[in-house]
Every structure is written in structure tokens, then in C-alpha cells.
Structure of CopG family transcriptional regulator:
Amino acid sequence: MATSLKIDDNLKGRVQHLASQRRRSPHWIMLEAIQQYVEREEARERFTQEALASWAAYQQTGRHLTGQEVRTWLNTWGSSDERAVPECHD
């Protein structure tokens, strides 16, 4: 799929300058930027969908952990006393 991209002269100059500094082609710089943007936005969408699913599950069941319970659990990460995730409750 061939696609053209119209960018203003200022941005074009910036891309060319960066490409020169990185010893890459302007094409490579633009592809990398687009790929990173798409991956970031896809991750954001997955996070949003997961949060909405979690909220729906909470509304149906009422099962949860308090913020303090999560903080206490997370504070054990990487220690000799690392604990498993606590059980949710009503």
C-alpha cells in the first residue's frame, strides 16, 4: 500500500536533521514515529477496554480490593516477604 504524507517545510527540515544525526533515512524516522504512535494508541485502547470490563465486573459482583490492600501487597514486591495477590471481597 503506497501512501504519501504531506508535511510542512519546518517539520520536513526537522525530520531531515534528525535523520542525519541518527544516520537513518527520513523515511525510516517517519515509519518509526508512526509505528510507535500506533503501538502506544493500541495499548491505550487495550487499557481502556480492560478498565471498562473491570468496572462492569465490579458493578455485577461488588468484589474488590481497597487501595490500602493493593498498596500493602505492592510494597512486598521484590522483598524476601513478597506476597501473592490478595483475595477480592465484597
